[in-house]
UniProtKB/TrEMBL annotation:
This is Nucleoside triphosphate/diphosphate phosphatase. Its EC number is 3.6.1.15, 3.6.1.6. The lineage of its organism: Bacteria, Bacillati, Bacillota, Bacilli, Bacillales. InterPro entries: DUF402, FomD-like_sf, Ntdp-like, SA1684. Transmembrane segments: none annotated. The keyword Isomerase does not apply.
Amino acid sequence: MSFPATGSIINIQSYKHNGYLHRNWEDTVILKGTPSQVICGNDRILVTESDGRQWRTREPAICYFNSKQWFNVIGMIREDGIYYYCNLGSPFMWDKEALKYIDYDLDIKVFPDGTYILLDEDEYELHRRMMRYPSQLDTIIQKNLQELIMMVTQKKGPFEPGFVEQWYERYLEFR
């Protein structure tokens, strides 16, 4: 799997388990791209929903994807600190059109003080039944949810102090 060069501008696309496009983020800059990890940045980019609705993000963000983890992390840089939005989803893939993953609805929002809340449990349950997620998939999602919570509470990986700031400085070099 070859990746775009550092500094390349890509789209990020999330899909649902049934294969339908869920959301598309444009104009995201690759800061690091390897077969196992992608770190990218964006700021006030256009997002298109599956129903055609469009909106712009409000702040700079650093996005973290890992090929072995069933989640991705978006560190949003706001005046009062860094907020994280974490999507439980399949490991990423790159197919020259976009960086892609399957969104499995469960999300964690992490606040600057390190507290967090689990979001969209009802949506996960609805889609799990509606799209007939296999029991093995549910096991993977639950295991990765626990791994993600552990990373949040232990401030590891993209939650490590300085991680988002360091990559944001790198992102500014490409603007």
